[in-house]
Amino acid sequence: MLSSDPLCNILYVDLTRKRFRVEQRQDLFDRYLGGAGVATQLLHQSCPEGGDPLGPENPIVFAVGPLTGLFPLASKTVAMFKSPHTGNLGESHCGGRSAVAIRMAGYGAIVIEGRSEIPIYLAIHGSDVHFRDASTLWGMSSSLTVGHIIREREPGSGLRTIMRIGRAGERMVTYACVAAETYRHFGRLGLGAVFGSKNLKAVVVSGKRSLPVADNRAYRRVYKDIYEAATSSEAMKKYHDLGTAQNVLPLNKLSAFPTRNLQETKFEAAEELSGEAFAQRYLGRRLACSHCPVACIHIAALREPHEVEPYFYKTSMISYDYEPIYAMGSMLGVGDPEGLLRLLDRAEVLGLDLMTTGPVLSWATEAQEKGLVSEKDTGGLRLSWGDWKTYLEATQRIVEQPNDYFAALARGVEHASSIYGGAEFALALGGNEMPGYHTGPAAHVGCLMGARHSHLDNAGYSVDQKVLVKEELSPEALGDALLEEESWRQILSSIVICFFAREIYDRDTVLCCLKAAGFDLDVDRLLKTGRDIHREKFRFKAREGFTFDGLRIPERILETKAPASGLSEEYIRATLDHVRKALV
Ligand code: SF4
What's the predicted TM-score (pTM) here? Predict the structure, then answer.
């Protein structure tokens, strides 16, 4: 990397002692590029083996990459921590202004350690770090209000990121999220709970650095090519026009749209919840992360009448995407789009990860239907498919945890089903609730084997739809395909770009961009770096007790027919075994 690049600066913040320091680690960035690669190393170094994810010993690592601030769609920040939800590797990505703000503040990574005695928020403005009292913000019912107040107090308007938690994080729901700029999130695996455990309400970052490039002319050339591809390609146009909600109708048509806790794969109200219907009826505006010309973030404008006064209306701006539509819509049998938008809004205000909340509520509904859970457990609530008003109340109770049952739900379906039964329909893979794809075995193997048990690890759902719907693959061939994709994604999440731009950032483009940023690699070295980072993640996971043999495959996943062939326990286990051997 270029020696003048501030990327090598790592800011360490100690919340216990209210101190900070900067270390220069060019060695780490030269070896692992940035983002996920560097964050994995920092997690290895800062997180003690067997540490409590909600203890002061669990660090929060934020890392950006060499392309951040230089190229379009290099808009994401990687967060790395030990997950309170799975007890293992926690990795979550978020856009908004987070990445560009951290880079412009002059850092490649920020490591937050310890625990404050009182609620605080961190304000990092370039080289200044402030520990601000957040006692008056703690306990506020709406995370949106917290954002408004911090916006008024802090400088750096237009350049800063405000990453904050809601009540769910304060109450340490193990799938609480961290919101950045309201509509983007570090969603999965409970970063919000780790913030809460540290009495950390928010992190504000801003800065005005400029960044060096190796060869200005080459930089401009490759920038122009990427920008043109991002603004003219058909794939990116779809993200702009309809967003990820474009996936609702194709997946429903394919019978791969998980419905009512995956008892079905087609939802009768899919048309109502489609990207097309949302755009026509509710789309209020589109937003973009910093340095992204695509603007895939779709915000619905929901107008609600005042409860008492006639002719008075409140308009809420609510973001929607495919995964929230699946999780809080089809999985709960909620076909009323306005009911769904209210559910999404409530989860946003509380700071919950929607992709987890949906499968938790769908498990709870089926558990109550089957008599495993009584109205005494639920405090009088009777959950039933489609009843979004009762789901609103249940969502609130998950956060407030008024009794043992809601405290169990606040730890996810793996935990709740270990107490109340119903593991066969508790839809978690590696402890992480399933995403919205029942396309076939590759989707589920992909989540089981993925370093963070996410559909974004290796996109198994794509292998199902492109290959396994037409032909069979041996477990070895499937395992190799998923491993190759996952290794490549380590590069994309280390440089760090938005996965939606993965077709634009092919190998040659990545090498050209890296060269402009001062990294002179060839393709073999690049691919080896991806494999190394992948192995390093598994080294952390193994250290914290992960084993392939210990993975649970919920019966419901095997019983519900999927469009692609090969959905059997034997095939899935054989593929996992091949992956295990390849990673050792
Ligand atoms: S495509 Fe969407 S998620 Fe990706 S960087 Fe752009 S606005 Fe953000």
Answer: 0.97
